[in-house]
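Narrative summary of target 7.
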Amino acid sequence: LNKIEQYRDNPPDWRMLSYNCNHFASDLGKTVGLKAPRGIRSQQFLSNVYFRQFLKANGEKPRYVPQPGRS
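Modeled conformation, tokenized:
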């Protein structure tokens, strides 16, 4: 919770290439002992793809999650 409070009190500057939502998720994950997927500093901006890589890096097999409006 300390890390979340730090971000709330002093939010990081968002940068498309150097600090985006994937970096934010990775930082929070590392705080609780998760591994970040390789290529975090790459141009991987698709959060859904990144999230699946994050799961794989931590030993989870991604499962199908239905999207609203899709069957």
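The two ends are 36 Å apart (CA to CA).
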